[in-house]
Amino acid sequence: MNTSNDNNTELRIGAVSYLNTKPLVYGLAEMLPAAELVFDYPSRLADALAAGELDIALVPSAEMFGHPEWSVVSNACIACRGPVLSVKLLFRVPPSQVRTLALDEGSRTSAMLSQILLLEVAHVRPQLTTLPLGHEPVDVDADAVLVIGDRAIRCREEEFVEVWDLGDRWCRWAELPFVFAMWVARPGVDTNLVEKALTEARDQGCQNLAEIAREQSLAMQLPYELVFEYLSRNLHFELGVRERRGLELFHKKAVAHELVPQLCERVARR
Is there a shared CATH topology between the 6-79+178-269 domain and the 87-174 domain? Predict the structure, then answer.
């Protein structure tokens, strides 16, 4: 792949195909007409970036822990400072009795977050299984099921004995925001113009949340009020000082619980 990226020629940029990404890519194609935008699940984007198939991608924050060679290229992100609505842990038994956990294949960050909170709050370390992409919680018989993205927003909570909104659980336990995804680049990519475009796209998207909510409520067949509330209140799109502190704590706990290897602290700080 060409890594010179003069004027963003042949840049391949990967974005998540979920509702929560819409404000981050608002007008981005017009701002970077020479770039190719690719939409996919978060975990697949991270794999493609690692393989050199993408130059820049919006990847789950946990992926940074395993790739210290990647660099954050924008302060645009997907984060929360309270309930997030689109990341949920569904319990068929009380949390302290969980022995098996089915993890949504779509995001490794949420998978790691669910394990940390089960260890810290419920003091259990369940055996892990998988909730495949395209499947519903009823398709697996695990004691707890992690669901993310649009299917978490749509899930029927009354079928479970307890439901954790993992954004809410983290923010109350850690007293810090949680960062789910960030724009990162692989080595050798010129990101100067891209960084400006990513920031402008985020700013314009946040200024046009009502328009985005109207379009997506129709496309997803969800109430406009729900979609607008989600985009405007549940999500936070700027990687600030407290968000970085939340990332540092997330990394620290992931290492402490042997979910990731010990890495240089600059992963969370840069």
Answer: yes
Domain coordinates in residue numbering, the chain: 6-79+178-269, 87-174
Cβ(126)–Cβ(118) below 8 Å: yes
The domain 6-79+178-269 having CATH identifier 3.40.190.10: the answer here is yes
Which residue stretches of the chain have pLDDT < 50? 1-8, 263-270
Q: Which two tokens stand for residue 165?
A: 């909104």
| CATH class of this structure's domain 87-174 | alpha beta
Map residue 16 onto helix, strand or coil.
strand
Which amino acid is residue 198, in one-letter code?
L
| Residue 178: closest CA among 231, 131, 112, 232 | 112
For residues 159 and 92, the answer to whether their CB atoms sit within 8 Å is no
Secondary element (H or E) of residue 31:
helix 28-31
Residue for token pair 């992926």 = 63
User: Which pair of structure tokens corresponds to residue 79?
Assistant: 């984060």
pTM value is 0.88
Q: What is the pLDDT of residue 8?
A: 46
Q: Are strands 12-16 and 36-40 parallel, antiparallel or unpaired?
A: parallel
